[in-house]
Specification:
alpha+beta, Immunoglobulin-like, four-stranded mixed sheet, 29 strands
Length: 464
């Protein structure tokens, strides 16, 4: 009976906290509603949203390439409207109603250099403009583009541009073939012109099969072009490449690489300007390469290129590495204090929000590769640490499934493990580091609370 009362009390507490969190968020959000927005709410207008609660992105490219206006700072620290829905090829025109604001792409207070006022250059600096300023940006690719005012993002001055169309319906569709059969290329999307680039690689495993020029794909015409720029060398397999801005100008930076049938690797760095079709050397060789290490996972965060792990092609007959390196243009390398939990090469890596995630990878010992199929961990920006993730929403869902399958002991253990992550005021984050108990990700996270409530109700109730 005590266990039943404990579950009921916990369920009630979680439900109450869930309601309080969402009611408080709704209340704070209503404070920023304009009279027009309040009128629309009163009319019970229907909105279609995605799984994150944002307006669903769907539709077809605009036939007229329309211009949509947004007022900056009109009536306070706001964009009016703060959400616009447009099609591929449309333009958003921001006009400053008051001074001291910026339009900076990226999540709140985190510039991602995709676009920014006044001229799409030097985005991390957050240039503030005066009343009367006009800034425009044409969106060439579908997606959800968040932005903010650099000076007032902490006060909620944020906006979203939802861009629909431009692609076939969801799912895979046929595209134009690469100019040559190719492997070991690095793929890079260049936001400034909306095109995709295949950097480096080779056509076969035969000597001398390395590509010598970048490949450019234009999604608008569904066509590839072999560019005129020539790579500085033939060590162009397995490079780490990403878009970084130097003095406000974006380039594709590439690091390291190997050549088929040739022992050892290159540590050199070069950059490619897709606009001018020019490749230039960068006088900052990768310190982690040592002439024998291929970059592992790589991603860009906050205008820095991160390399996680790698493949030492020589030591011990070939082995993985666990180092993490950070490159800041134009020439600065820093080895981070954190290391991967396990030395890994060929590590799928990406940036989501303020975290760098990895999945899978190759455990390399004595030249033998063992593929890993599970999520290994993540890079936490603010603490320079690596944490193995425990997803609280997933833990609760597992507990619910175990309970419904009659696996009472397993469900109880999983449920109690999730409950142990609750903080002192009864709230859960999106994820938690099981080693330190540190809460990570969105906080509070609704799905964690909902999952725990569902798991509690699914648990078998003892007879009284």
């Amino acid at each position: 009976m005590k266990q039943l009362n404990r579950v009921v009390r916990l369920t009630f507490w979680l439900a109450a906290m869930f309601a309080i969190v969402f009611l408080s968020q709704a209340e704070s959000g209503n404070k920023r509603l304009t009279p027009t927005q309040q009128k629309r709410s009163a009319d019970h207008e229907i909105h279609i949203v995605d799984q994150n609660g944002r307006p669903a992105v769907s539709g077809v490219p605009s036939a007229t390439s329309q211009i949509v206006d947004v007022a900056v700072g009109q009536g306070g620290f706001v964009f009016v409207p703060d959400t616009v829905n447009i099609s591929v090829g449309d333009t958003v025109r921001w006009t400053w109603a008051t001074s001291g604001h910026s339009v900076t792409s990226g999540p709140p207070c985190e510039a991602n250099s995709q676009y920014c006022s006044p001229n799409d250059t030097n985005c991390p600096a957050g240039t503030l403009s005066n009343s009367g300023t006009v800034y425009t940006h044409t969106f060439a690719e579908p997606g959800v583009y968040s932005y903010h005012c650099f000076a007032h993002c902490a006060l909620g001055m944020t906006g979203v541009v939802n861009v629909s169309g431009g692609c076939a319906p969801s799912g895979w569709s046929a595209g134009q073939d690469l100019p040559s059969v190719g492997v070991r290329l690095a793929g890079v999307y260049f936001q400034a012109n909306g095109k995709f680039y295949g950097m480096g690689g080779r056509s076969s495993d035969a000597a001398g099969s390395e590509f010598t020029h970048p490949f450019e794909y234009d999604p608008g015409t569904n066509s590839w072009t072999t560019k005129s720029a020539t790579y500085p060398d033939t060590h162009v397999n397995n490079m780490a490449c990403g878009v970084l801005a130097d003095a406000g100008t974006p380039y594709i930076y590439c690091v390291g690489g190997s050549q088929v049938t040739v022992t050892g690797t290159f540590d050199r760095v070069f950059r490619y300007d897709p606009v001018t079709d020019v490749i230039s050397p960068v006088a900052a060789p990768w310190p982690g390469g040592l002439g024998m290490v291929l970059p592992g996972g790589f991603t860009v965060f906050n205008n820095k290129l991160y390399i996680l792990g790698g493949f030492d092609t020589i030591t011990g007959g070939g082995q993985g590495t666990n180092q993490i390196w950070e490159f800041t243009p134009p020439t600065t390398w820093v080895q981070k204090t954190a290391v991967l939990p396990v030395p890994l090469g060929y590590l799928p890596t990406t940036t989501i929000g303020t975290l760098i995630y990895t999945g899978g990878g190759s455990d390399i010992t004595g030249g033998v590769l063992t593929e890993l199929k599970v999520k290994r961990g993540m890079w936490v920006k603010k603490g320079d640490i690596i944490a193995i993730l425990s997803d609280e929403a997933r833990e609760a869902q597992v507990a619910q499934a175990q309970a419904m399958a009659g696996q009472v002991e397993a469900a109880t253990a999983t449920f109690e493990r999730a409950v142990a992550a609750i903080n002192d005021v009864g709230l859960l984050a999106e994820e938690v580091d099981p080693a330190s108990g540190e809460m990570i990700g969105n906080f509070p996270q609704a799905f964690s609370h909902i999952g725990l409530i569902n798991a509690a109700w699914a648990s078998p109730k003892p007879s009284s």
